[in-house]
Amino acid sequence: MSSRFDIIHKDTAGRIGRLTTPHGVVETPTVMPVINPNLQTIKPSEMRDFGAQILITNSYIIYRKDELREKALQDGLHALLDFDGPIMTDSGSFQLSVYGEVEVTNEQIIDFQQKIGSDIGVPLDIPTPPDVSFERASQELDITIERLQAARKLVTGDMLLAGPVQGSTYMQLREKSARTLSETGFDVYPFGAVVPLMESYRYADLVDVIAASKKGLDPSAPVHLFGAGHPMMFAMAVALGCDLFDSAAYALYAKDGRYITNRGTYQVNDLKYFPCSCPICQKYSPEELRKAHNSTELLARHNLYVTFEEIRTIKQAIWEGNLLELVEQRCRSHPRMLDALKQMYTHSDWLERLDPASKSTFFYCGPESAKRPEVLRFASQLDRFTIRGSALIRPSPGKMDSQYDNVLIFKPPFGAYPQELAEIYPLNAEVVRNPDYESLEQAYLNTIKLVELNPEAEFTLVIQERFGHPLLKKLEGMNNVKVIYPQGE
C-alpha cells in the first residue's frame, strides 16, 4: 500500500486523511468537481473559491479532440484547464459504458495521461453495469484486472494510479476485485459502475457494494466513489469508508433547473424561498434567479456551495465523533436512504472493528440506532462483567440501592450495566424517555445475556410500565431474576 495517504482522524469507517499528489496535498473527504474540457459552466480557476482542492476531467475527451490534445501535450493538463492544483483524469471508461467502445487502448490512454501531467491516472477498465449475468460480470472483471495490472507496470513517473474496483452487483466479485487490486498495489481505489444504482435510488444495494469492496481492501487505502455527486448521500458513503467523490451534478442539475440541498433536490421553478445562505441565495430570490441571463451558472454556483458545505459538515462530525448521528439525520431525507441506513447496520460487525472505542456522547436518533456498532460492541463485551451476590437493575439510581451488592442501570438500547460506568462512552448515551420497540428489544436481549453469564447472582429488575416488552416474560421465567413493577415510585 502506498504511503501517500495518511489518516489523521477517524469515526466509524470514515476518516479525515491527507492524500499527497504531485501538485499538492488533498485533505479528504472531499469532492472533485468534474470539468468538461469542451464546455465549462464555471471556470476551473474559480473552483478554489468554493472549497475545491482537486478536479477531475476526462483524458479521453482531450485525447480525441486535436486542439485539446496538442495543447495538453505541449503545455500540460494544468495549463489547459488553468488550475494549479491536483487533477485526476478518467480514461474513457464512461464512454465505453455508454457507447460500447472507445478509440483508444489501455496502453495509449495511460501513456497519454502521464505525458500531459495528470496527478491521478485511471486505466481503461470495464464498468460492468448492475444486474448482468454472473458470467459476464466475472469475465469483464478478469479483463479489468488484467488491464490494471498491466497499467501498474506502465506508470514510471510521479503520477498516482487508480485501481477501479468492479464486479457489478455480485458482492463476492467486488470483494475479490478489491483484494486482488490491493495485493497489486494502487494509490487510489475507485468503486466503479455505481451510477446506475444511484440514478434508480438503489442506495441499499450501493451500501452492499461499498461494504463488500471495502472488506477486500487494505483498510488504510484511499477510496473514490465514482459518479457520486449529490450531498444527500455523502455522509453515509463517508461512514462506510469513502474518501473522494466526483460531481458533475452541480452543472448537470443546473442545466435542468435543479437546486441541490443536503436533503434532496428541488426544481427552482417550484421555489418561493431559498433555504440556503450561500452568496447566490443571499443575493437572489428564486424569481430573480430564474430571470437572470446567467441563471444556469448561478444555480451551478449554489450547487457547488452546498456540496462543499456538506463536506465541511461531515469533517466536523468526524472530528467530534458523531458521524453516525449525522448519517441518521441525512438518511431520513428519503425513504430509499432510510433503506440504506438499515442496510448499513447489517454490516455493524465490520464497522465495529473500524470504529474508535471512545468518543464524546452517543445520541440515540431512532430505531436504527439500536443496531449501531457501539451497541454491538457492548453486547460482545458483556462477559467482562462479573456480578456476585445481589444485583438491582433499574432505570436510574434510587432509594433501594443500599440493600444490594451491585446496582446496575438499565438504559435502552444497551441494557443493564454497572452504574459506575454511567459516564463512560457509549453508556453516557442521550436517549429518548419513552424507548421504542427496537431499542427495548436490544436492551432486553443484552440483559438476558448478562444474567445468563452470571448464574450465581440474584437479580432484581425494576421495570417502569413504559418499559413493557414481550422479552420481559423470558426474564421473569429465569431462576435468578425477580421482576417488580413499582407503583408511583
Automatic annotation (TrEMBL):
Note accompanying the cofactor annotation: Binds 1 zinc ion per subunit.
Domain named tRNA-guanine(15) transglycosylase-like: residues: 12-335
ATP-binding in keyword set: no
Cofactor: Zn(2+)
Residues the record lists as binding substrate: D125, A193
Annotated binding of Zn(2+), by residue: C276, C278, C281
GO molecular function: pentosyltransferase activity; zinc ion binding
Enzyme Commission number(s): 2.4.2.48
Reaction(s) the record says it catalyses: guanosine(15) in tRNA + 7-cyano-7-carbaguanine = 7-cyano-7-carbaguanosine(15) in tRNA + guanine
EC class name: transferase
Protein keywords: Glycosyltransferase, Metal-binding, Transferase, tRNA processing, Zinc
Domain of life: Archaea
InterPro entries (alphabetical): ArchSynthase1/Queuine_TRR, TGT-like_sf, TgtA, tRNA_ribo_trans-like
Involved pathway(s): tRNA modification; archaeosine-tRNA biosynthesis
Gene3D superfamilies per the UniProt record, alphabetical: Queuine tRNA-ribosyltransferase-like
Any Gene Ontology biological process: tRNA wobble guanine modification
A family per Pfam: TGT
Active-site feature positions: D90 (nucleophile)
Cellular component per GO, a single term: cytoplasm
Function description: Exchanges the guanine residue with 7-cyano-7-deazaguanine (preQ0) at position 15 in the dihydrouridine loop (D-loop) of archaeal tRNAs.
Family: Belongs to the archaeosine tRNA-ribosyltransferase family.
Name recorded for this polypeptide: tRNA-guanine(15) transglycosylase
Organism, scientific name: Methanolobus chelungpuianus
Upper lineage: Archaea, Methanobacteriati, Methanobacteriota, Stenosarchaea group, Methanomicrobia
